[in-house]
Design a protein that fits this description.
Largest sheet of chain A: 5 strands, parallel
Distance between the termini of chain B: 54 Å
Oligomer: heterodimer
Radius of gyration of chain B: 28 Å
Number of helices of chain A: 14
Number of strands of chain A: 9
Strand content of chain A: 5-15%
Shape of chain B: globular
Largest sheet of chain B: 6 strands, mixed
Strand order of the largest sheet of chain B: 9-8-7-10-11-12
Distance between the termini of chain A: 58 Å
Strand order of the largest sheet of chain A: 2-5-8-1-9
């Protein structure tokens, strides 16, 4: 199955799935599908990295298998694990059965617990595999991913090598909290998502918050753009623009004037020093 | 793929590698595979294809863009005029655009300059990127030509262009336009400055493109491509580069902190935690499959930073201080002193949660207090430090000295420095100069290096490597 027919097709179908992709995102997603290579998406928090994977799933009718990475994630949580308890039960239940038969028995599919990576590879239906926040894992887990990402196969010593029934569309996301290894990057296509331009952001906000007035949407996006120009610890991202728009709708604020901005600034800026700076630079009265 | 394209492709990759972007053979093949499914007629798609397959680090993206524009130029010469405002005519082998309203024979006279500046001011005020790019091309075509000795020997200069067009003088106009749009003045000025800076960048890119068309891209790629921001020397950074470096500090500190914390966790395996191990073994029928360990006490060093803030090394000292403070959670205590010939404590400038802009301002304002005579004197600075602030050092402190070790041929105070370092756990000297300049002129890198290990630290990459390994 081909995932997308062309970059334009990718943009259109992602758009239908509720994800407004710019040219770079559409082209890279298309390439990732066409070349059957994993897609590594990097960028600041809240610019829609995870959402891209979900949107690809929705647009192509594929099911999403998600592996959330965290510090201390290991093979047993990411790939597969033998069901020790069940194996122990099996050994106890075997009674006078010969050991040779039993030990062949307990290393079969029945005792295998598949984790997200193995699940994604064994599925016969179209699958989007999302490996989220891959930079949070330890370096050893990256090594574990290499075999899957380059050959779409998993080697289990007791069973042999399991090759993908159908290659999944793999998306890896990273906040760049650490540099990923060259070996991992080499196997992936790379996409850096950044804050969108004003027009695209306005469109995104309008889609996510349909109740929002056109004029306020413009004000929200303009103000967020101005905030990003300041040197802040954490610049507001798309997610924050959308939250802000939702807040304004909920509070029924009809005009984003100085008072409204300083009253709701906490939705967009989440460091005290950032808020102070914004108040000072944008000359807001508190 | 025709042989011409393949040659361009190969030399493009060579240029990328030369500029420090590691492109492997596998990625090369990926790029070729990508082009078999992309439309060669679409320059934008090809650019994205290259970017996705070859450039795996965002910091390298500007380098990539520069080189891509050189090897796959957007247009040749002045290109084909896309709208009515610019028509092309050919004079002595160089085609130049002549605007309709002012076509009086000369193409780079004062009338054209005024006209171009007017259009430029409008485009800057409305931040119209396409118009700006076209104006940059036109400006270089008109005002940046350096006539050679004969036809075909002409060259192009971004410097001449910017001197004649002088976009800096348009800042006020842009500011007033932005103010009318409801921006506040500081912010308007910053925005205007940035837009003018971006225009200067466009002019430089266009001049590079034109030179590349005449002399071949390889020639330009070797000389004109600047290193990425984390490899740029502190001492050769321009104002815009410094601002960009400052924006890099927090992400860098975050990456470093994550990495330091992780490395600490990896080493945390202390003695066996018997209780937890037995607990865990219950679920596996009493067999202790997984062992649990007690955490080790982490060692967090105390840090004393002593920096030379005179003239050329000041920005290096500021970056190092800011990075150290952004990482203050990784250290028990940090104290900072600045000196030129007097020592002055600046620890109080860095309060947790303060904003980097304020910190920079505070540091700059305090520089005067570190200078009595205004000439760097390491000997006196060390002596004053030993006399007034010796209590800052102890057996748990790491002493960090930042400076170029150029002491204006005065007393070096090596003995005082030796005494100071003997009181500390570790001492390091970070020198922002290239080692080949050490011990030249009044540099005392040798004598100091014999007492304190001296480390070369010229850019953000080297700085972050050093801070990470700091114990």
């Amino acid at each position: 199955m081909t995932w997308f027919a062309s970059p334009a097709d990718a943009a259109a179908r992602l758009g239908e799935a509720g994800y407004l992709a710019d040219a770079a995102t559409a082209t890279t997603s298309y390439l990732s599908g066409a070349l059957e290579k994993p897609l590594l998406v990097e960028g600041p928090a809240g610019v829609g990295k995870t959402e891209l994977a979900k949107a690809v799933g929705r647009a192509t009718g594929a099911e999403l298998v998600r592996l959330q990475c965290y510090e201390g994630l290991d093979e047993a949580r990411a790939l597969y694990e033998w069901n020790y308890k069940k194996q122990l039960l099996r050994i106890q239940a075997s009674g006078d059965q010969a050991w040779e038969e039993t030990h062949d028995d307990i290393f079969t599919d029945e005792f295998l617990l598949t984790r997200p990576l193995l699940t994604a590879i064994r599925r016969a239906e179209p699958t989007v595999l999302l490996i989220d926040e891959v930079d949070k894992t330890d370096v050893e887990v990256e090594g574990l991913l290499l075999e899957i990402l380059s050959d779409f196969q998993v080697t289990i010593p007791e069973l042999g090598t399991l090759v993908a029934v159908r290659r999944p569309f793999v998306v890896l996301t990273s906040n760049a909290s650490r540099e990923l290894s060259e070996a991992l990057k080499r196997r992936c296509l790379y996409l850096h998502l950044d804050y969108p331009d004003a027009e695209r952001e306005r469109e995104i906000v309008r889609r996510q918050v349909p109740d929002l007035d056109e004029r306020i949407a413009r004000q929200v996006v303009d103000t967020v753009g101005r905030l990003r120009d300041l040197e802040l610890k954490k610049a507001p991202s798309i997610a924050e623009s959308v939250d802000w728009a939702r807040t304004l709708v909920a509070l029924e604020i009809g005009d984003l004037d100085e008072r409204a901005v300083s009253a709701t600034l906490g939705v967009v800026l989440k460091h005290a020093s950032d808020q102070e700076r914004a108040v000072k630079e944008l000359r807001l009265s508190r | 793929m025709t042989s011409g394209l393949l040659t361009t492709h190969i030399s493009f990759l060579e240029a990328l590698r030369g500029a420090g972007v590691p492109v492997s053979l596998a990625e090369d093949l990926d790029a070729i595979a990508a082009f078999s499914v992309l439309d060669w007629g679409d320059r934008e798609a090809i650019r994205q294809g290259y970017a996705a397959t070859l450039v795996k680090r965002h910091a390298q993206r500007p380098t990539f863009e520069t080189l891509f524009d050189l090897y796959f130029p957007r247009l040749v010469g002045d290109g084909v005029a896309t709208d009515g405002a610019v028509a092309t005519s050919s004079t002595d082998g160089v085609s130049e655009g002549v605007s309709e309203g002012v076509s009086d024979g000369v193409s780079d006279g004062p009338a054209q300059l005024a006209d171009l500046r007017m259009r430029l001011a409008e485009a800057l005020a409305s931040a119209d990127h396409d118009a700006l790019r076209q104006l940059a091309a036109e400006a270089v075509g008109r005002f940046g030509a350096m006539r050679g000795r004969g036809p075909g020997l002409s060259s192009w200069s971004a410097y001449t262009t910017l001197q004649r067009v002088s976009p800096q003088t348009l800042v006020d106009q842009v500011v007033s336009a932005l103010l009318a749009d409801g921006r506040v003045d500081d912010e308007a000025r910053r925005t205007a400055d940035r837009r003018v800076g971006a225009f200067a960048g466009l002019v430089e890119a266009d001049a590079r493109r034109r030179i590349a068309a005449e002399k071949g891209p390889d020639h330009v790629a070797r000389v004109a491509v600047r290193p990425s921001i984390d490899r740029l020397d502190f001492t050769s950074a321009r104002k815009a580069d410094l601002a960009e470096m400052r924006r890099e500090i927090y992400p860098l500190a975050r990456r470093l902190a994550a990495r330091m914390a992780r490395e600490r966790h990896a080493k945390r395996r202390g003695p066996l935690d018997f209780r937890r191990t037995v607990r865990a073994s219950v679920s596996t029928g009493g067999v202790p499959l997984v062992t649990h360990h007690k955490p080790k006490r982490p060692h967090r060093p105390e840090l004393v930073v002593l920096c030379d803030v005179s003239g050329s090394v000041a920005s290096f000292a500021q970056f190092t201080l800011m990075l150290v403070y952004a990482l203050h959670e990784q250290f028990v205590k940090v104290r900072a002193f600045t000196f030129v010939d007097q020592v002055h404590e600046v620890t109080d400038v860095f309060r947790p949660g303060t904003d980097l802009g304020e910190v920079m301002g505070g540091l700059a304002a305090r520089t005067a207090q570190a200078a009595l005579w205004g000439r760097t004197n390491y000997g006196r600075a060390f002596a004053t430090f030993a006399a007034e602030h010796a209590d800052a050092l102890g057996p748990r402190t790491s002493l960090l000295i930042l400076g170029d070790a150029r002491s204006n041929y005065s007393d070096l105070g090596v003995d005082v420095l030796k005494e100071l370092t003997e009181q500390t756990r570790h001492a390091y000297w970070l020198n922002p100069e290239h080692p080949r300049h050490w011990d030249t002129g009044d540099s005392a890198a040798g004598p100091y290096g014999a007492v304190v290990p001296m480390v070369e630290c010229r850019n953000l990459a080297q700085l972050s490597d050093f801070v990470r390994d700091l114990r």
